[in-house]
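4.2 Preliminary Data

To establish feasibility before requesting continued support, the project team ran the inverse folding procedure on a target of 75 residues. The structure was first converted into the token representation described in Section 3, and no sequence information of any kind was made available to the design step. The complete token record follows.
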């Protein structure tokens, strides 16, 4: 069973900017579908760079209510 599609995104919050990979589940097609899921309060990113730091964090979970903007980055 495939886990879904991995997309690279940049997420901006009030305090920081995060760049990493978001996994979109099979039953969803877009980043906005993941953000609009009412039953989930967090999004999970992997291989994350925080504020342009060169050392990636393997995993971070962000509260969707703290997100100001999210942009998909073409690879």
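Position-by-position output of the design step:
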């Amino acid at each position: 069973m495939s886990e879904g599609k991995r997309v690279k995104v940049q997420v901006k919050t009030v305090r920081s900017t995060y760049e990493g990979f978001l996994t979109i589940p099979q039953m969803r097609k877009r980043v906005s579908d993941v953000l609009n899921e009412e039953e989930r309060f967090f999004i999970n990113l992997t291989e994350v760079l925080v504020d342009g730091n060169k050392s990636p964090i393997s995993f971070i979970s962000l509260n969707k209510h703290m997100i100001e903007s999210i942009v998909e980055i073409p690879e």
